Amino acid sequence: MSHSRRIGVITAAAALLLTATACSGLGRSTVGMLTFRGHDSPVELSYSNTSVNGCHRIGLPKGATHVENNTLVDVVLYRTLDCTTPLGNDGIYVATTLSNVTAPVSLPWRSFSVIH
């Protein structure tokens, strides 16, 4: 392989790597549906293509007590509106393609974040 061809291959590989790295965090979203339901409620609220960045409020007035994570990513559920964990109450981890239901005496979930 000639010297100029080798430099061309290295330059092309570096440009490709730089492009992939620069775009990796932009506009990424979940793939699949994340579905919430309140206690004894027939109403379901589903999220799809949710950004993997930041905290997301669950749009049910009384919060959610049931969740189905049919996405390709894991999520953490919080009992606060802003994904905080006051008094050492950790968020609830729900892995991809799993579901979870709150205990009858516990508070509902109010927000979630995506693990990416």
Automatic annotation (TrEMBL):
PROSITE patterns hit by this protein: PROKAR_LIPOPROTEIN
UniProt protein name: Lipoprotein
Biological source species: Streptomyces roseus
